[in-house]
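dumping this here so i dont lose it
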């Protein structure tokens, strides 16, 4: 029997109508197929990449950039939403300072620079900085899997201005107009801010367009260290055959980049929540995920990987449930097979 069939039999044969746990079944199946194991335990680890973005000079964010450092430190101190989510559910996590613009370091020091440059004026990062940020994402993920024994990685980020960098990357990848992609980010409804973001993104992407040969060029010219590290981390998970959960808009853009770089990424990627940012549905499509197939639709837009941790909790709940449920076959009734392949096992 193919392993996929074993997983399907396990889930479809539990004492419930077939497919009645919908997307939760679908993503549990994806986990087990990625692991090639059904008697497993989820060993999660949450990685939050924090970095500043030079583009904030253009007035594209409502909050000041100092919040990147302060909130990353809150995460380390257990006082941010994400740290409360992780601590409450006993999910270990690390904050990685990959490029905060502050004299102090928050979390693990893997700082590439004091933030990126303003992409309206120059490339956001140099090739050397891009490579370093990529290595940080790759190395941290591989180490978390091999040394810490994690078998499910989740990703989060923190960086004032990163809805602008993510929108710029998505616009550059797809040509979809910024007006369809850009949202309010961390600001309250502010039409002026949206207009400014759209204009900055169009002009910024136009300025660098001739340098775009590969996805890496787009990330280097208009992206951020957080997005580069998450993209590298998702590719690393794929190379290690380890499933991962991504979060909102910024995570979805990293997923889109990773899926373009390595087609196999789609096999290991699990979405968590659908962000308020309108661009997320387009980013998902680049990795063949429909917005309707995102399990948590709660109008969230916080980042930090908050939706990803909620999804990890849903997956843990599902795994325990499927491993402990009675079987349809225990009912000892003759047949209620509604269609081939979906019957009582
Ligand atoms: O993940 C999302 O979908 C999301 C949507 C809106 C805002 N954020 C968070 O807010 C920050 C970016 O917002 P902004 O307005 O400064 O670009 C950054 O720290 C993100 O984690 C995150
Ligand atoms: C307070 C605050 C917390 C955040 N967490 C992620 N992005 C954020 C942006 C702000 C402004």
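and the seq i came up w/
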């Amino acid at each position: 029997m193919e392993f996929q069939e074993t997983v399907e039999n396990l889930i479809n044969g539990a004492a419930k109508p077939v497919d009645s746990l919908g997307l939760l079944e679908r993503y549990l199946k994806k986990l087990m197929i990625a692991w090639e194991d059904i008697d497993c335990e989820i060993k999660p680890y949450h990685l939050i990449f924090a970095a500043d973005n030079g583009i904030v000079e253009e007035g594209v964010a409502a909050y000041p950039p100092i919040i990147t450092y302060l909130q990353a430190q809150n995460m380390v101190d257990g006082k941010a939403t994400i740290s409360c989510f992780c601590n409450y559910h006993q999910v270990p996590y690390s904050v990685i300072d990959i490029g905060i613009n502050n004299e102090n370091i928050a979390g693990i020091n893997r700082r590439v620079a004091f933030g990126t440059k303003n992409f309206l004026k120059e490339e956001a990062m140099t090739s050397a900085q891009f490579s370093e940020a990529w290595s940080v994402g790759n190395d941290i993920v591989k180490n978390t899997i091999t040394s810490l024994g994690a078998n499910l990685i989740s990703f989060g980020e923190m960086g004032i201005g990163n809805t602008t960098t993510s929108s710029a990357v998505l616009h550059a990848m797809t040509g979809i107009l910024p007006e369809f992609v850009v949202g309010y980010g961390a600001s309250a409804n502010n039409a002026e801010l949206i207009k400014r973001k759209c204009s900055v993104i169009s002009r910024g992407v136009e300025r660098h367009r001739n340098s775009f040969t590969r996805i890496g060029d787009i990330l280097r010219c208009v992206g951020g260290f957080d997005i580069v590290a998450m993209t590298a981390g998702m590719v690393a998970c794929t190379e290690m055959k380890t499933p991962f959960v991504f979060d909102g808009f910024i995570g979805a853009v990293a997923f889109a980049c990773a899926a373009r770089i390595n087609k196999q990424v789609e096999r290991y990627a699990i979405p968590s929540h659908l962000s308020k940012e309108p661009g997320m549905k387009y980013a998902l499509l680049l990795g063949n995920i429909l917005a309707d197939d995102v399990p948590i639709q709660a109008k969230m837009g916080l980042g930090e990987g908050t939706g990803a941790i909620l999804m990890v909790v849903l997956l843990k709940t599902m795994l325990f449930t499927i491993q402990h449920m009675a079987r349809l076959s225990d009912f000892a009734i003759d047949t209620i097979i509604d269609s081939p392949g979906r019957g009582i096992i």
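The CA atoms of residues 111 and 141 lie 16 Å apart.
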